[in-house]
Amino acid sequence: MKLNEQKHEIKNLQTELWKQRRKFDKIITANEISVEGSEHHELKDLMASCETEFEKSFPISTSRQRLFWEQRMSFVLCVLTLY
Q1: What span, in angstroms and rounded, lies between the C-alpha atoms of 71 and 56?
Q2: Is the per-residue pLDDT at 16 higher than 60?
């Protein structure tokens, strides 16, 4: 594959990844479940304890499962700082 073709393919893949992340953000935002107070800490601890195993199970960082996991972790950590 020529260098220009590779650059084009990389750009296409990055665009697709961006679209998937936006799609997941919209789905997660539309279907959020409210968790308050100490439940946030429990959820964060639970997810942190599973993170290594999850990454082993889904080693491809662009897989839908990993994107979902990363979005959930980001959400949990973000909301946790608000309390």
Answers
A1: 17
A2: yes
Amino acid at 69: W
pLDDT of residue 15: 92
Phi, psi of 24 (to 5 degrees): -65, -40
Least confident of 1-5, 11-15, 61-65, 74-78: 74-78
The DSSP-derived string for the chain is --HHHHHHHHHHHHHHHHHHHHHHHHHHHHT-----THHHHHHHHHHHHHHHHHHHHS--TTSHHHHHHHHHHHHHHHHHHH-
Joined together, the tokens standing for residue 55 give 């990454």
This prediction has a pTM of 0.47
